[in-house]
Design brief:
With 111 residues, this protein is an alpha+beta fold. It has 3 helices and 5 strands. The structure holds zinc ion.
């Protein structure tokens, strides 16, 4: 699968995650999605708050802000139902490495 094919698959998967979240009583806003390498550095290069090898630079990660009943939920545990759904459709959930709002698609061994 090319990077472009993987990016397009990831976007479709994110659509399914968003639909699942709303169907289960959650609401979301986007945190970081794409991190432009012109701002954050190329993959492997550290030039901002972003991790040097972040998948956000390759359009393969999104951070979501999670809400339920109008309340902003910030704990990794709050994201767990979404994270488990995300894993069930082939994604990697950041809650497995203390980054609970991070939803990605593994690429080149990176999450
Ligand atoms: Zn992230």
């Amino acid at each position: 699968m090319t990077l472009g094919q993987k990016q397009r698959k990831f976007t479709e998967m994110i659509g399914r995650l968003i639909a699942w979240a709303y169907a289960n009583g959650y609401e979301l806003t986007f945190g970081d999605a794409y991190r432009d390498p012109r701002v954050h550095g190329q993959v492997g290069q550290k030039s901002s708050y972003s991790a040097a090898s972040s998948l956000h630079k390759e359009r393969l990660a999104v951070d979501f802000n999670l809400f339920r009943d109008g309340r902003y939920l910030t704990r990794t545990e709050d994201h767990q139902p979404l994270g488990e759904f995300w894993e069930s459709i082939g994604g990697t959930w950041g809650g497995r490495f203390k980054d609970g709002n991070h939803y990605s698609l593994e690429h080149g061994g990176r999450k």
